[in-house]
From TrEMBL:
<keyword id="KW-0411">Iron-sulfur</keyword>
<dbReference type="GO" id="GO:0016740">
    <property type="term" value="F:transferase activity"/>
</dbReference>
<keyword id="KW-0004">4Fe-4S</keyword>
<dbReference type="GO" id="GO:0042364">
    <property type="term" value="P:water-soluble vitamin biosynthetic process"/>
</dbReference>
<dbReference type="GO" id="GO:0051539">
    <property type="term" value="F:4 iron, 4 sulfur cluster binding"/>
</dbReference>
<keyword id="KW-0949">S-adenosyl-L-methionine</keyword>
<dbReference type="GO" id="GO:0046872">
    <property type="term" value="F:metal ion binding"/>
</dbReference>
<dbReference type="InterPro" id="IPR007197">
    <property type="entry name" value="rSAM"/>
</dbReference>
<dbReference type="InterPro" id="IPR013785">
    <property type="entry name" value="Aldolase_TIM"/>
</dbReference>
<feature type="domain" description="Radical SAM core">
    <location>
        <begin position="145"/>
        <end position="365"/>
    </location>
</feature>
<keyword id="KW-0408">Iron</keyword>
<dbReference type="InterPro" id="IPR006638">
    <property type="entry name" value="Elp3/MiaA/NifB-like_rSAM"/>
</dbReference>
<dbReference type="Pfam" id="PF11823">
    <property type="entry name" value="Se_S_carrier"/>
</dbReference>
<dbReference type="Pfam" id="PF04055">
    <property type="entry name" value="Radical_SAM"/>
</dbReference>
<dbReference type="InterPro" id="IPR058240">
    <property type="entry name" value="rSAM_sf"/>
</dbReference>
<keyword id="KW-0479">Metal-binding</keyword>
<protein>
    <submittedName>
        <fullName>Biotin synthase</fullName>
    </submittedName>
</protein>
Amino acid sequence: MDKNKIKHYLIMAASTNHMLRGDLLLKEQGIHTALVPAPSEYGSVCAIAIKLKTSDLEKAEKILKENHIKLYRIYPEKIKKLSGLVEKLAHSVISNDFLAVLKKIEEGEELTYEEIVLLLKTERKAEIEALFHAADQMRKEIIGDVVDIRGAIEFSNICRKDCKYCGVRKSLKDLERYRMSEDEIMEVVHQMHAIGMQTVILQSGEDLWWTPEKILSLINRIKDETGMKITLSIGERPREEYALYKEAGANNFLLKIEATNEEIFKFIHPDDDYDTRVQCSNWLRELGYLNGSGNIIGLPGQRSEDIAKDILYFKDMGINMIGVGPFLPAKGTPFEKYEAGSVEMTLKAVAVTRIVCKRVFLPATTALATLDRDGQTKALKAGANTIMLINTPAKYRYNYQIYSEKNMVDLKSAYKAVTESSRKFPPYLKVDWEVFKDAGHTEK
């Protein structure tokens, strides 16, 4: 293969630890990198790779070898062409403009802002179906058929922020507040570990009772007792704190931008600053986290153009995990009377995000499952590749409702979504799926 024609390479290290250390070393030496899910032919669904420009490859190899980073293999990034995509649509009612964009997708070309807007704005049934098919084919080619399943523990609903849409905002007086103890959290972590789950998501409001010392203690126990990967979702913190958690073993961090339109961002976050949110995300990237973000579809005043800019933000920031979910009103908040976001627009945003950002983790979100009981199945057919289970203990679960009437996502609902979308379960889970198969037949 002619090296001059290759734009990027993917570096696979011998372990996740070496991968993350190597990525941080390269960033410190001024090499622009992105941590991306490895292509299906190069590793498991959880495997990650360091993506970098061809011009930086020789320097990067030298740095990694000098610092004893064990490399597995180095691959040229393949441009993913979706063979036969347009040919299959020969008899569909599709506009010439839409077809032209599909041809670019088929050839693996990058889309412009205007083309992304066109995809999001379509209301023709045939075009929407073609969009979902293209995203699903892109997902299959790049990630494969296995659905990554992770579990979230919502360990505190106490929050210092007053976001207008949120069901745990500090101004809510009737909400029963809770804060799980470290031992309670560890009990759930061990339950998750026992069934083979590899990643635990620790999610909470911005609860400053959880000091760096307490969070570090929790991270250390999870690593020492289970070795599981850790995703933190605890909001905006100083860079020094993010660095401490990374050094202690935290792997991923989820901090959603929610809206890149700064007017909308300020409207929904009266006590937040847009530049601070972006700065936090930059810090997380610099520190070598797998960086998670996302947006909310259907916010007041939001247009297709805004969603297109969100998607380009994810691409330009090198975001690794992107949560795209519909707006859902929460009782007792200033937004409780607003209309919920559209399932169709959310699915279109999921599909376009897959097509534009390509090699990313893209969840079939809980919010989508709440708005539409088949929402996760539909998302898995439109480019998504991850499901997040809710592992919060039952006695606390009801009081962690960022939006009202949140649907329960557990192994049973995950089984339904994965089987109905003709996808595969991750081999690391020690679960007798026949139990859920039999339960499904019984309900029918």
